[in-house]
Every structure is written in structure tokens, then in C-alpha cells.
Design brief:
single chain, alpha+beta, 6-stranded mixed sheet, 8 helices, 12 strands, 24% strand, DNA-binding
Length: 256
DNA sequence: ATGGTAGGCGCCCTA
């Protein structure tokens, strides 16, 4: 069983890449972030023709998440605590055999101290509270997505200049740690301790060509799933293509 | 003092 996460930075633009990547990678479940597509124009037909079910929550221009899967979910939740999301950033799906996938597109936050940054912290707190309550509902629990936080110094190319900046700030690290302490593991770090392994590279600075980026996309698993995880990699090949997303997919493989 | 690119939208915003 393979489960992956990918911020595609516009599903409409990246759809051909996503469809060919699905064939190549043979994943069973893929959580996608930044679809930037309203529900009414979501490419259901193309994804179903590729052999996947899809659930989605989107909006015009910004944000938007979808989780596509070879088996249909038993339950889909698009709200947090029964409240409609003002920004469409979170999608929960549950499957047979007691598996939950929580797909997150964490707020970017723009700059420390800005209104967007305050919203990032507030959003993270509310999601954390939701997770705390939801985590015990299924035996297998996976949180994947674009977290917009580089967890440690080895997860970004220039930690000293990024210290206390957005995506590498103690307030964000504290919230991430509270999540981890619910009993979750960053699957990539179960297998690979090297520095300089990134999932996102800035277009503006030609970060990919310069090997400068951050590891801000990851897959967090509860202890049962962490034990059954056999591999977790970042597929940088997807970032080498013509007209790529600024993020590469993260793939975890399980014996289930 | 804040460039550079990309996507969506429409001449600017967000990442």
C-alpha cells in the first residue's frame, strides 16, 4: 500500500503530470494540495477514468485540497468541528480497515507578525485541537500535506538566515511539536537522517537548480502505521519535469 | 531595500 502527498500548485495546470505520475508511482491514495479549483470545475471525469475515486474541497484562485484513492472512502469530512472552512485547506477521509487520512494545506503565513501569520498560528491551533479529538477514532491514522514548516535545521538550506522567519519560527515549531507529541512520527525521518533533503524549492531564486529549498511536505503517522511503514521518499524526479510544481511528492509505503 | 518565477485573475494578489 502506497500513500503520497503532493502540492501541485494548480490542479488544472498539473493534471497531465498528476495522471502520468499516478501510473508511474502506483500509489493507492494521493493527497493533493493547492488545487486552486472550485468544486464545480473539479476534473472528476479525468481522475475517475484513471481509476481513482476523488473527494475535494476547493475555492476560486487559492488553496483547495483533494484526496484521490483506488478504494472509495467510507466517510468524508470537509468541516472542522461542524464549521465550514473559510479557507479550503483540510479534508478528512476514512477507509475500510480503520484507516484515516487527514490531508492538510497549512497556511503559509507570509511574514512573522503579519495578519496572515496570526492566522497561520490560529489555524494550526484549531487543527491541532481537532486532531487531538479525532486521532483515537481509527486504528490507523495518517496526516499528510504541505505543512509550510521546516521542522529542523537540516530541513532547509540556510537555517541561520531563516531563524525566526516564517516556516522556521519557534512558535511554529512549538505547535508542530505538540502535534508530534500526540504520538505521531515524521515517516521520512524514520529512514533518512541526511540534511539537504527538500520537498519545496523557490521558483524565484531558481532554488531547485541551486539545490536550495525546504522540507515542508511530510507524512505523519501514528505508531501502528509507523511500525508498518517500509519506506518513505521524496520523488524529486517530478520536480525535474517541464513546467513543474514548486513541490515534489512524498511517498510512503506500508505493509498492510 | 526586497529582487527573482509561477498561477490565477484581470493590470494585483499569494506563494
Amino acid at each position: 500500500m502506497k500513500i503520497a502527498s503532493w502540492n501541485v500548485n494548480s490542479l488544472r495546470v498539473r493534471l497531465p503530470q498528476v495522471l502520468s505520475w499516478l501510473k508511474k508511482s502506483d500509489v493507492d491514495i494521493l493527497g493533493i494540495q493547492e488545487t486552486k479549483v472550485e468544486d464545480g470545475s473539479f476534473p472528476i471525469k479525468e481522475i475517475e477514468e484513471a481509476g481513482f475515486f476523488c473527494d475535494f474541497i476547493g475555492q476560486k484562485t487559492y488553496n483547495g485540497v483533494t484526496t484521490i484513492s483506488k478504494i472509495p472512502p467510507k466517510q468524508v469530512i470537509k468541516s472542522i468541528d461542524g464549521k465550514e472552512q473559510e479557507q479550503k485547506r483540510i479534508l478528512l477521509t476514512r477507509y475500510k480497515d480503520d484507516l484515516t487520512i487527514l490531508n492538510l494545506y497549512v497556511v503559509n503565513g507570509s511574514e512573522v507578525g503579519s495578519d496572515k501569520y496570526k492566522y497561520k498560528l490560529k489555524w494550526l491551533k484549531s487543527v491541532k485541537n481537532f486532531i487531538k479529538k479525532d486521532l483515537k477514532k481509527t486504528k490507523y491514522y495518517l496526516i499528510l500535506g504541505d505543512f509550510n514548516i521546516a521542522p529542523h535545521a537540516k530541513d532547509l538550506s540556510n537555517p541561520d538566515s531563516m531563524r525566526d522567519k516564517v516556516s522556521f519560527h519557534p512558535k511554529e515549531h512549538a505547535l508542530l511539536l505538540e502535534l508530534i507529541e500526540f504520538g505521531l512520527s515524521d515517516l521520512f525521518r524514520k529512514f533518512d537522517q541526511r540534511s539537504g533533503k527538500f520537498s519545496w524549492w523557490d521558483f524565484r531564486t531558481h532554488g531547485f537548480e541551486r539545490d536550495e529549498g525546504m522540507r515542508i511536505d511530510y507524512i505523519l503517522a501514528n505508531s501502528v502505521l509507523t511500525s508498518s511503514c517500509q519506506a518513505c521518499i521524496i520523488d524529486t524526479e517530478a520536480r525535474e519535469q517541464e513546467r513543474p510544481s514548486d513541490h515534489a511528492p512524498v511517498i510512503a509505503e506500508f505493509k498492510l
